[in-house]
Amino acid sequence: MSCHNGRDIGGQTFQKPGAKKAAPDGKDVGRMAVTGDTADRLMFKVPSLRNVEKTGPYFHTGKVATVQEAVRLMGEFQLDRKLDDHQIAEIVAWLKTLTGEIPADYIRQPDLPQ
Ligand code: HEM
After folding, report:
1. Residues within 6 Å of ligand 1 by CB
2. Which residue among 15, 71, 93, 112 is buried most deeply as judged by most CB within 10 Å?
C-alpha cells in the first residue's frame, strides 16, 4: 500500500489507477486536465484512507459503491493480485480502524466551477 502512506494514509501523491494492470480508460484524463502536462495523463490523487468506510462512493468516478469492491479493485489493478473474500474482509477490518472524526472541510460541499 506504498501509495496510501504518511499521516493521512494517502492524500499527498498522484498515481495512475491501473499501476499493475491497465484500468479501463475513461474520458477523464486526470491531473493533465489541470496541469496540461502529458506526464500527468491518467494520474489521479491517491485519496486519504482516513474514515474511508464513511466516505463512499469511491474513486474519482464515484462509481464504486462499497469499500469491499474498492479494495478488490485495488488488489486487481494496483497490485495485480486477486484478493479472496477473506483477505478483503481483513483489509476492510483494518480500514475501519482508520475511522475517527471526519474533518468538516473534508466533507463540505466543494466549490464547483460555475
Ligand atoms: C491493498 C492495498 C490497497 C488498498 C486497500 C487501497 C485502498 C484504496 C481505496 C479504498 C480507495 C478509494 C478511496 C476513495 O475513493 O475515497 C483507493 C483509491 C486509490 N488508490 Fe488505493 N489501495 C491500495 C493500494 C494502492 C496502490 C499500490 C496504489 C498505487 C499504485 C494505489 C493508488 C490509488 C489511487 C490512485 C486511488 C484513486 C483512484 C481513483 O480515484 O480513480 N492504491 N485505494
Report:
1. 1-4, 15, 17, 19, 44, 46-47, 49, 52, 55, 58-60, 67, 70-71, 74-75, 78-79, 91
2. 71
